[in-house]
Write a structure and sequence with these properties.
single chain; alpha+beta; GMP Synthetase, Chain A, domain 3; 2 domains; four-stranded antiparallel sheet; two-stranded antiparallel sheet; 4 helices; globular
């Protein structure tokens, strides 16, 4: 009976099989991710993630994932959830964590600790219509990574951190222009 190699909670054999499948057929790497957001009240909205398309075929999550977003009191919200820019920071941290854990597992590193502290600077003048410039989004994002592994030295973890940063889909979305096509259906 074959044994499965699990490192950092990652099925390494399945990870290697997935990478090999992508090498054989690049379409295996193609996804369309989806989310639905519904405004509830004031600054509060609810996001639902039901499924995604993989290789052009609809695929469902095992369960519907629900997120609540709101604004803090100082921004007129009820603080019932993180605001959208906080969720963007968390999304970057989630993406870095997956990239770090999966790539560490593939390299044979056994993680003992991994955490990311993220900060983003934002000036709301443009958003509230007071001034042109500064841009309405983050002007800078800073990420502090804390990592420890049983069998990887500082140089190896630093190189892994650079690799994860350079290959992170969410970092790419935040750091580079992405066409966003918005339409409206008036009800």
């Amino acid at each position: 009976m074959a044994t499965t190699t699990v490192r950092n909670g990652v099925d390494v054999d399945r990870l290697i099989q997935t990478i090999d499948a992508i090498k054989q057929d690049p379409n295996v790497a193609r996804f369309t991710f989806k989310a639905r957001t519904t405004w509830e009240d004031g600054g509060s909205s609810r996001g639902e993630i039901h499924g995604f398309d993989h290789m052009g075929q609809p695929t469902s999550h095992a369960t519907v994932h629900t997120l609540v977003g709101d604004e803090p009191d100082v921004l007129l919200g009820k603080d019932s959830g993180p605001n959208a820019v906080e969720l963007a920071l968390a999304a970057l941290g989630f993406c870095y964590a997956v990239g770090f854990a999966y790539n560490a597992a593939a390299r044979g590193y056994e993680l003992e600790e991994l955490a990311f502290e993220l900060e983003g600077d934002l000036d709301l003048r443009n958003f509230v219509g007071i001034a042109e410039g500064p841009r309405p989004g983050f002007t800078e994002i800073r990420v502090k990574t804390r990592a420890r592994a049983k069998n990887a030295n500082a140089a190896e973890l630093e190189e892994l951190c650079r690799y994860v940063q350079d290959t992170s889909p969410v970092r790419d979305i935040l750091a580079n222009p992405v066409p966003v096509k918005t339409s409206i259906e008036v009800l």
